[in-house]
Every structure is written in C-alpha cells, then in structure tokens.
Amino acid sequence: MTHSATVQTYSSAWSQATEQGIREALALCWTPASTYTDPMTPTVTGPDELAAVILNLHASSPGALLVQTSQLDVHHTVGRFAWQLKSPTRIDSDGTARALDVEGLDYVEFSEDGSRILKIVGFFGPLRAK
C-alpha cells in the first residue's frame, strides 16, 4: 500500500458507520503499537483504543465524516495532510458544542514501506498567521 492509500484507509476508518467497519479499516493501516493523540484526546495506543475514540466521536456526533482536504505531503517516513470533520449536528468534544465542520491537520509517521501508520498527532483548526 502506498503512503496515500494508507492515509485514505485511515481516514475512512473515521467515517465508518459500524464498529466492525472501523476495526476492519484500522486492521489495514494501524499496528498494535501505533499511537494517536489530538488536543482533546490523551494518547491512545493500538487499534482497540483508537476504535474507542472513533466510536466516542460517533456517539457524540452521529453522522460525522472525516474528509481529507489536501494531498498527503510526505518525505521519508513522515507526512502531513489536512482534513475536515463534517457533521450534520454540532460536533461535541470535551462537553463543548463546536461548529458543524471542524478542520485540522495531522502529522503522520509511517512504517518504512508506508503501509502502516505508526503515529498520528492531530491539530484542530488552521495554522495561525505569524
């Protein structure tokens, strides 16, 4: 799998409607030691913990979809890409109702062959001007 296909598979996990769909997508791109963190989530490790984060998002914001909004920018075994979380209801994180659409940027570390994600660090919102 190419780096881009790996990110597409990962992104699709966030938009799956069922726990089985989430787990099947993660099985293709995640490892037991892979980590994920964002401003609202403590670092989680492995597919079970990430699946729980995704399921919690769907419980608080039913129908939310993650859409990759940029090409993957990659060199060596690292990359970044922009995304937008679209929701038919206000996105609820940390007990705070937020906008219907939230944009962000993910930093990614890949396995040597690019077929697995080893680490994702997510950032919410656009980059701020200097």
Main sheet properties = 7 strands, mixed
SS-based structural class?
A: alpha+beta
Q: Assign the CATH architecture.
A: Roll
How many helices? The count is 3
SS strand fraction: 35-45%
Between the first and last Cα atoms, what is the distance in angstroms?
A: 37 Å
H and E order: HHEEHEEEEEEE
Number of DSSP strands? 9
CATH C-level category: Alpha Beta
- What is the mean predicted local confidence, pLDDT? 90
Rg over C-alpha atoms, rounded to the nearest angstrom: 14 Å
Shape: globular
**Which fold name is given in CATH as the topology?**
Nuclear Transport Factor 2, Chain: A
Which terms summarize this structure?
two-stranded antiparallel ribbon, alpha+beta, Nuclear Transport Factor 2, Chain: A, single chain, 7-stranded mixed sheet, 130 residues, globular
What is the fold's blueprint, element by element?
Blueprint: H1 3-15, H2 19-29, E1 30-38, E2 41-45, H3 46-60, E3 65-68, E4 73-75, E5 78-86, E6 92-93, E7 96-97, E8 101-110, E9 117-124
Parallel strand pairs: 1-9
Antiparallel strand pairs: 1-2, 3-5, 4-5, 5-8, 6-7, 8-9
Helix pairs in contact: 1-2, 2-3
Model description:
The protein has 130 residues and is an alpha+beta fold. The protein has a single domain (3-124), classed as Nuclear Transport Factor 2, Chain: A, CATH 3.10.450. It is 30% helix and 40% strand. The chain contains 3 helices and 9 strands. The strands form 2 sheets. Strands 1, 2, 3, 4, 5, 8 and 9 form a 7-stranded mixed beta sheet that branches. A two-stranded antiparallel sheet has the order 6-7. Helix 1 packs antiparallel against helix 2 (19-29). 24% of the residues are buried.
